[in-house]
User: Fold Histone acetyltransferase type B catalytic subunit from Capitella teleta.
Amino acid sequence: MTHQIFGESEKIFGFRDLRVNICCSAARMKTLVQVKHSGSVDSVEDIPADDIMQLLSQHLQPGFLTNESEFVKELANESTFKPYGELIHSYQVTKGGESRTFEMFRTSIETPGFRDFHERIQPFLLFYVDAASYIDVDDEKWTYYLLFEKYQFEGSTRYAFAGYMTIYSYYAYPGLIRPRISQVLVLPPFQRQGHCAAMLQAFYNLCYKNDDIKDITIEDPSENFQRVRDFVDARNCMTLAPFKSLKLLFGFSGDMERQARIKFKINKKQARRVYEILRLKRTDPSNEHEYREFRLDVKRRINIPFQKRGREFDKLSKFLQPTELAATMNSQREQRLEYLQSTFEELLEEYQKVIERLNMI
Ligand SMILES: CC(C)(COP(=O)(O)OP(=O)(O)OC[C@H]1O[C@@H](n2cnc3c(N)ncnc32)[C@H](O)[C@@H]1OP(=O)(O)O)[C@@H](O)C(=O)NCCC(=O)NCCS
Assistant:
C-alpha cells in the first residue's frame, strides 16, 4: 500500500523498469532506500518526473541510507542491539520440529533510543494499514508494546523486530482508565503464526491485573485484526459459565455482559459479538429451529437502529398523504430487509472463520 506516499493511483511517474527497494536491518531497523531504473524523463508535457527520494523522505526517518556499503557497515552494530523497555512476556512458536523464541517488551517514548527506533518502525504503518496516521509521541498517554524474535547467531543473542502495538490511555469515569489499542502491526514474515493473538493476550493479562482499568477498546479495527480480537475474546469467554453450551441458546444475558466486563474487561458491544460467535458455534446447522432462532436473534440486533428510525418515521407520516406513505414504507422495508440479510451473511462469514480457529485449540 503506497497511496499515502505516491497518491491515490499508487503510480510513480517518469521512469522505465523502475524498482524501489526499501531494506531494513532486522534489529535496529536501519533503513536503506535504493531506486533503480533503465531510463527516466525530466518531464512530459510540463509534468516533471516524480522525485521519489523527496516523496519518501516526507515519511521515513531523516538520515535513511541510500548507499549499500554504508548499510552493510551498519549491520555490524546489529549484534549489540537490546530491545527497549521491560520484558513482559516470552513464548515459543514451534513449527516442523523447530522452536523459535519471541519476547514482548513494554516501553514509553522516554526509554533511551526508543524515540529514534519508533521513527523507523512507524513508516511501516503506511505500507500495511489503510488510512494509517502517525501519532503524537510527545503525548505521554501512549504506551508501546514491541515484539522481537530472540535467536542465537555466531555465538551471540540477536533480536529481530517482528511487530508492535500502540495503546492510548483514555480517562474513564470515575477516575479509571480505558486503554485503547490504536495501531497494531505484525511484519509480513511473521504474520499468520499467532503473534497478534499472543500480543493481544499478553496485553490483556496486564490489564486484568490492573484495578484502575475499566475496559479495553480498539480504535477502528481492520477486518483482519477484528478477527484476531474475536478469537482471543471468544477463547477467554468460553471459560465463563454464562457463555457455556445450553445457556447460549437462550439469548444474550445481563450475566454474560457483566462477567465479560468484570473478568476480561470486554465492553458490552464486543461481549454481544462474542456471544453471537459462541452461539453460532453451539448451533446445530441441521437443526432448523435452532438455526432460525440464531438468525432471528442476530437480525433483531442489526435491526435496532431501524427501529429508532421508525419512530422518526412515525412523526414524518403525519405530513404524508396515505399513498406517499405506503410507497415510502414499501421501498424502505425492502431496503431494510435486503440490508439485514446481507449484513447477516457477512457476519456469518466472519464468525465462521473465528469458529474454525477456535476449533483448532
Ligand atoms: C492484522 C495483523 C495484526 C494480524 O497479525 P498476525 O500475527 O498475522 O495474527 P495471527 O497470526 O494471530 O492470526 C492471523 C491469521 O493467521 C492464522 N494463524 C495463526 N497461527 C497460524 C499458524 N500457526 N498456521 C497457520 N495459520 C495461522 C489465524 O487463524 C488467523 O487466520 P484468519 O485471518 O483466517 O482469521 C497482521 O496481519 C497485520 O499487521 N496486518 C497489517 C496491519 C493491520 O491491518 N493492522 C491492524 C490495524 S487495526
Observations:
- Residues 322-358 form the longest helix (37 residues).
